[in-house]
């Protein structure tokens, strides 16, 4: 009977911890994301959605701007996870590649711009602590991580374009590369 009681207590504790985590999100990340969403929509309203669409159209024409510059600006200005929302301005064909590059960039920029993805800063700081223990420069690590990330995220986004084309052809789907 003791095992059944311990199992039941552990089972309930699992849901209690889940509830505590949920409440911490409701008082932590959810309001931040909501305010970023409000700020982004305010900026878009002030600039005009047409101008933002034109910027996205210009960015969509070139893989470097689409998978390197636009994700960088989005991550720097909006942080994770809001940066992904900039993909809504791209044509359907390029959205998967943008999301791939964007999600990766939110990780590889932590050393130089910790505000982009503070929830995962512990990963970078763990590596940086090891580098510091070895007597090496942490700033050099952060800049190299950012530069390698920019190149690799660009490649990841572009490769996703080829994957998207392959899957679309396989499924008989046509995704638009331009806006109407």
TrEMBL record:
This is PTS glucitol/sorbitol transporter subunit IIC. It comes from Streptococcus cuniculi. The chain crosses the membrane at residues 22-47, 68-90, 142-168. The gene is srlA. Coiled coil: none annotated. NCBIfam families: EII-GUT. One of its GO terms (cellular component) is membrane. One of its GO terms (biological process) is phosphoenolpyruvate-dependent sugar phosphotransferase system. Signal peptide: none annotated. Keywords: Membrane, Transmembrane, Transmembrane helix.
């Amino acid at each position: 009977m003791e095992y059944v009681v311990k199992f039941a207590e552990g089972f309930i504790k699992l849901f209690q911890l889940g509830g505590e985590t949920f409440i911490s999100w409701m008082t932590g990340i959810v309001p931040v994301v909501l305010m970023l969403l409000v700020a982004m929509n305010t900026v878009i309203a002030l600039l005009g959605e047409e101008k933002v669409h034109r910027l996205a159209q210009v960015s969509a024409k070139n893989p470097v701007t689409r998978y390197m510059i636009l994700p960088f600006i989005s991550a720097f200005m909006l942080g994770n996870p809001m940066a992904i929302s900039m993909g809504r301005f791209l044509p359907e064909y390029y959205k998967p590649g943008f999301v791939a590059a964007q999600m990766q960039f939110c990780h590889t920029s932590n050393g130089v711009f910790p505000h982009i993805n503070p929830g995962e800063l512990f990963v970078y700081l763990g590596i940086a602590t090891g580098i510091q223990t070895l007597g090496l420069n942490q700033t050099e690590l952060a800049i190299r991580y950012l530069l390698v990330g920019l190149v690799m995220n660009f490649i990841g986004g572009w490769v996703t374009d080829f994957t998207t084309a392959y899957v679309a052809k396989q499924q008989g789907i046509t995704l638009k590369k331009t806006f109407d």
